[in-house]
Amino acid sequence: MRLLGMILFVTCLAGCVQATLPFKRATQPIQFRSPHLAEDVAPYAEIGERMIAGQAFIRVTGGGVATCAGNDAWLLPKTPLSEEALDIWRRGDGVYTNNVQSTGYKVTKRSRCDAGGNFIFEGVPALPHYVFVRVRWMGQSVGWDEGELTTHWLVREVDVSFQSEPRVILSRNERLGRFVVGVSSGAASFQNEIDAVGEFENKIDTVKFNAQLRAVAKLF
């Protein structure tokens, strides 16, 4: 009887832990099928005449606004490989990069967000790009408990083929050309921060996404 009780306790405990996880269960990283060719990356190595400037922010619980202040905005080229990476991340899966070699071109750009969450990229070639930005903030404290650190990665495609983008806005509340690829917070604040049912289902934990973005960026 005691053995049966222990089995039931372990089973219940495992079920409870699994139920509180806000992220998709771990899966094997997916290998790229798209080619990574020098001819796709080479045009991005040119110093262009375009400029991409914008701001990243999220309206959080309580009416406050969190920005990307102090964090880097990343500018990656839009190629078959980066398109596939984005599609994999969108589904909540991870990418496997060890079987892909860099073309030798270094075209990834980074820009530090200022206090207002503004960023700027200059000398951008007239081609489509992806802008990735991380927004972090502390959740509201409850009683003696400190608020938990929450992180969202935002990404948007920006095409400056014909002219510089007047201003790029990345925000969770934006409905066009925006989706969240990574979220990170405790289970309680996770439920409080979302503003739409299922908005963050099957999203990658930001610790994993941060490492994967860096790995993909090294290929460019």
What does the average pLDDT come to? 74
Low-confidence runs of at least 5 consecutive residues: 1-26, 141-145, 174-201
Q: How many angstroms does the end-to-end distance come to? A: 61 Å
Query: Which sheet architecture does the biggest sheet show?
Result: 6 strands, mixed
Question: Which class of secondary structure composition applies to the elements?
Answer: alpha/beta
In one word, what is the shape? globular
Total of helices: 5
Strand order of the largest sheet: 6-4-8-9-11-12
How many beta-strand runs? 12
Order of helix and strand elements from N to C terminus: HEHEEEHEEEEEEEHEH
Helices and strands in order, then pairings?
Layout: H1 2-20, E1 30-31, H2 38-41, E2 50-59, E3 65-67, E4 72-77, H3 80-90, E5 95-96, E6 109-112, E7 118-124, E8 128-138, E9 149-159, E10 165-171, E11 179-184, H4 187-193, E12 204-205, H5 206-217
Parallel strand pairs: 1-5, 2-10, 11-12
Antiparallel strand pairs: 2-3, 2-7, 4-6, 4-8, 8-9, 9-11
Keywords:
220 residues; alpha/beta; 6-stranded mixed beta sheet; 4-stranded mixed beta sheet; disordered N terminus
Q: What report would you give on this structure?
A:
This protein is α/β, with parallel strands linked by helices and 220 residues long. 24% of the residues lie in helices and 32% in strands. Strand 2 and strand 3 form a beta hairpin. The longest helix is centred in the N-terminal third of the chain and has 19 residues. The relative contact order is 0.21. The N terminus is likely disordered.
